[in-house]
Amino acid sequence: MNVEAQAAGVFVSSTNATTRPGLDLRTLRSEAELLAVRDVWLRWQQHPHTDYEFFLTIARVRPEVISPYVIAVYRDGQPETLLLGRLEQSCVDLSVGYLRLFRFPVRQLTFVYRGVLGNASPENCRALVREVQACLKREKAQVAHFHFVPVDSPMYRAVCEGSSAGWRDLTESRPHWVMRLPSHVDTILNGLSAKARKNRRYEAARLMKDFDNDVRVECYSNESDLPRILDEAESIACRTYQRGLGVGFVANDENRERFLIEAQRGRFRGYFLYLRGKPVAFFLGTLDQKVLYDNFTSYDPEYSKYSPGTYLFYQIFERICGADIEAIDFGFGDAWYKSHFGTEQSQETNISVFARGVTTLGLNVLRIPIRTVDRLGKYAVANMGFLRSIKKKWRDRAQRRAAV
Fold first, then answer.
1. Residue among 399, 65, 62, 400 nearest 252 (CA)
2. Could you give the domains of the chain?
3. Three-state DSSP class for residue 119
4. 176 vs 178: CA distance, rounded Å
5. Element (H, E) at 382
6. Tens digits of per-residue pLDDT, 40-52?
7. What values do phi and psi take at 93, rounded to 5?
């Protein structure tokens, strides 16, 4: 360990024999230590989840976070690559569909989405994966979790090649949809079939008729609007099946802090649809480098026959097409509207790498058969029509639970 790093309390691993001379890796575990790479981090960040201030905010407000955990690759004394993560006291859930069977508390290294910054070369990614496995042992952690890794990336290949299949868990790959925006909304409408255009006009006309033209869409972006935004979004989200499943938007401290930072920097966008003054649908996003990122989207199920979410999206398109915004990034998951509006698709997957030990051996004994049953069930749901109705009934049950 070099004297400078030792004085700063930064762990520096020895250079691996398979890498070029001059390579070392340093683990940064506090805000003070992160200042050493702040300048390059700010130059390299390309997504809101890897934004320097956003990263620190999440580390501060989430109660399960023990500390930041950033692994820096240095070559000849200069930072070349960063892997952004957190050390957390977390849980591993073993589920079949929406039914959670077991929950195991674990000490976990969590590496954030798009968290490889700088030179993500195959060599550097392999060095990072080796260091992650060393960190598991050093921190007495049971699992390292990589959040939605693109399957065509060097990091995906490095994790798969650098970990044994029996101690690695990959979820099924998920599509990530992005919509490239045209200069005018008419281009979107003209791309629809004649029947789809007719349906859109009919839905809009029925909405206006049934609510006496008292239909409006508002866009909020100021810090002073945040209390209202959180209250109105919560009034919608608390009625959805996502709330019954424990996912989706919640008006908690984390989202308050997150939106506050984004609003103070002029990046927050909150779109709401009102019917007779009542909020019934919302889109909460972050505008960063000419891309509008979809953070949370939902609508009140009481108004589902009016397709309020779809109506809101077309109203948003009218406002942002030709307004110096190049794309909407719909984020994780495969909701219908993402594939409906998306024009570009990539594949991503979660990867968990387990430390070798008695605790994780027992976890694996349960994990492998349960994961197999879960994947077979999802395949059946995707390919057998009657099972899709079971999925819908489960969501309806979750929605009723949320309403109660």
1. 62
2. 3-174+348-399 (3.40.630.30), 182-325 (3.40.630.30)
3. coil
4. 7
5. helix 358-383
6. 999 999 999 999 9
7. -95, 135
